[in-house]
Each structure stands twice: as C-alpha cells, then as structure tokens.
Amino acid sequence: AQKVTQAQTEISVVEKEDVTLDCVYETRDTTYYLFWYKQPPSGELVFLIRRNSFDEQNEISGRYSWNFQKSTSSFNFTITASQVVDSAVYFCALFSYNTDKLIFGTGTRLQVFP
Amino acid sequence: KAGVTQTPRYLIKTRGQQVTLSCSPISGHRSVSWYQQTPGQGLQFLFEYFSETQRNKGNFPGRFSGRQFSNSRSEMNVSTLELGDSALYLCASSSVWTDTQYFGPGTRLTVL
Asked: Which one of A54, A106, B89, B93 is at 20 to 30 Å from B39 when CA atoms are compared?
C-alpha cells in the first residue's frame, strides 16, 4: 500500500526561526516521485518541488531545502529564516505509475508569527 | 503561460441538486485530475482524464462523474448532492513530459 505520513499537524514559529516539516512515505514501487506543495489560505496548491526515487541529492532553493533519504523513507522540508508569508499548509505527496495518482499526506499547518 | 483555471470559484447548492464544475488546464497539458479536499478526509483523488478518456478513478460513488473535451478542458459533475459533498474541489493538469501536477485555485462547494 502507498501512504504518506506527516506527523506534525501544526507548527508555530517566530519569524527568522528555521523550521523542518517531516514527511515519511511507504511504497513498494522502485520508481516513484515525491512532491511538496504549499497551500496558502487562498486554497490553491502551489508546487514546490519534485524528486524522483533515483535522485537522493538534497536540493536547496533560496530559503527552502529538501532532504531525501530512501533508507528512512523520508523527504523532509526545511525553511530557513522563516517569514510570515511562509504561513500555509504544506503537503507532501507520493506518485507512482502503479497507482497513477498523487497520494497526499494530511498536511502540516505552519504559522509564522512576527 | 496562464495557470489552471477553475470556474466557478464558489457554489452554494441544496441537497438533491446537481452541480457541474469546470477546469481549464495549462495550455499544452493533456492530463487533468480532480481532487476533493475536506477537513475530515483530506485530499482525495477523484479521477484523471487524458485525451478525453478517463484513465484512472478514485473510490467515489457513481454520483461523481467527469469528462474531458478535445481542447483538454474538463468538467466534473456531482448529481444528487449530499451534505458531505461540501468540499474544495481542486483540478490539476500535467503534460506528457512530466508527472508534476499543477493545481488550480479550486471550487468551494457548499451543500445546504
């Protein structure tokens, strides 16, 4: 079975703090893709990153960084020096050709206070 | 390039009615997927269309149906609405070159 677990329901930080959002996935497929999406209060899911199962390189994009570890089936997301505009719900998702659909975690609500 | 657009953005219906939601994908994208988001169930896959054919379907009753037109625009229909159908319905499109799905702003449906 395919599953994505985001154990952190809600995280609150003060601006400029670093924060890490955890994502653990389950799949028996050898080829799959992992995603992170951001959902601001407006509701639209904004694509942040896609990583395939053969690429374990960590990625950094500005204040965002992602750590993919197949050994622990985790794909964690870190925001450095958080800002109020980072406040949103963040979803981790899994895609494989066996299911041919995105399977989402339950999301982590991040609140960044000034 | 324009993003995924969905109309209408908000809908209020009463139980028993039916509703049609529309989604226009990013230009050049031929795959359209639909998701339902509720506080209790989270984001759940409804179905996916590619080249006017339903390619995949989630675990929803037959009251939920969809179709795709030759220009890749897609519609989703829910018949005999129930209170539990109140949700944010999100549409996403992707191209044949990548499996990354890009989402629209959603249609918020309220069933009274």
From this structure: B93
| pLDDT at residue A99, rounded to an integer | 85
Nearest by CB: A106 against B42, B45, B101:
B42
**CB nearest B88 (choices: A37, A43, A46):** A43
Considering only the beta carbons, identify the residue of B58, B102, B105 that sits closest to A43.
B105
**DSSP per position, A10-62:** EEEEETT--EEE--EEE---SS-EEEEEEE-TT-PPEEEEEEETT----EEET
Query: Residue A105: what pLDDT?
Result: 97
Burial B88-106 (b: 16+ CB within 10 A, else e): bbbbbbbbeeebbbbbbbb
pLDDT band at B3 (very low <50, low <70, confident <90, very high): very high
Strands A108-113 and A88-96: antiparallel
Pairing state of beta strands B87-94 and B74-78? unpaired
Give which of B9, B35, B100, B110 to mutate to test A binding, by max A Cβ within 10 Å: B100
Question: Other C-beta atoms within 10 Å of B78: how many?
Answer: 25
Contact status of B95 with chain A (Cβ, < 8 Å): no
Q: For chain A, what's the residue count?
A: 114
Cβ atoms of B72 and B29 within 8 Å: the answer is yes
